[in-house]
């Protein structure tokens, strides 16, 4: 028997497999589960438990960013356009969102 709180979590949490490594993407704002307006600008944390990651990465997500302001002349496959796998995973739920790593070096 599964506890009702496991079926309906109080906080948003996603188990992810990013480039073959498992991790947890979670938020601390319960309104993200019930109020679509909070999906405009919010914070998530990512932790994969690997030795090189000593604490959860604090990410700021902006789903209404101006992605069209990016330099369109740059080749999307160039190193400057390469996006971390965690960002691409987040964009499977929030297409076009921008992700700020808040001082943490993005990991691929």
From TrEMBL:
Disordered: region residues: 62-86
Coiled coil: none
Entry protein name: Ubiquitin carboxyl-terminal hydrolase MINDY
Pfam families registered for this protein in UniProt: MINDY-3_4_CD
Functional note: Hydrolase that can remove 'Lys-48'-linked conjugated ubiquitin from proteins.
The protein's Enzyme Commission number: 3.4.19.12
Keyword Iron part of the UniProt annotation: no
Catalytic activity: Thiol-dependent hydrolysis of ester, thioester, amide, peptide and isopeptide bonds formed by the C-terminal Gly of ubiquitin (a 76-residue protein attached to proteins as an intracellular targeting signal)
GO molecular function, one term: cysteine-type deubiquitinase activity
Entry-linked InterPro entries: MINDY-3/4_CD, MINY3/4
Example of a GO biological process term: proteolysis
Membership in a protein family: Belongs to the MINDY deubiquitinase family. FAM188 subfamily.
Residue span, Deubiquitinating enzyme MINDY-3/4 conserved domain: 2-103
PANTHER family referenced in this protein's UniProt entry, alphabetically: INACTIVE UBIQUITIN CARBOXYL-TERMINAL HYDROLASE MINDY-4B, UBIQUITIN CARBOXYL-TERMINAL HYDROLASE MINDY-4-RELATED
């Amino acid at each position: 028997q599964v506890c009702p709180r496991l079926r309906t979590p109080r906080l948003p949490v996603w188990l992810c497999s990013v480039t073959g490594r498992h991790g947890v993407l979670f938020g601390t704002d319960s309104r993200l589960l019930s109020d679509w307006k909070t999906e405009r600008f919010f914070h998530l944390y990512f932790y994969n438990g690997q030795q090189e990651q000593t604490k959860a990465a604090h990410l700021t997500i902006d789903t209404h960013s101006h992605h069209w302001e990016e330099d369109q002349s740059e080749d999307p496959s160039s190193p400057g356009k390469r996006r971390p796998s965690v960002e691409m995973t987040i964009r499977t739920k929030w297409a076009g969102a921008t992700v700020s790593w808040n001082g943490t070096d993005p990991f691929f």
